[in-house]
Amino acid sequence: MKQLITQIEINAAPEKIWTILTDFANYKNWNPFVKELTGNVKVGETIQVMLQPPGSNAMKFTPVVVSFEKNQGFSWKGKLFIGGLFDGEHIFELKPINEHKTLFVQRENFSGILIPFLGKMIDTTTRQGFEAMNTKLKELVEKS
Question: In order of start, what are the domains of the chain with their CATH numbers?
Answer without folding.
Answer: 2-143 (3.30.530.20)
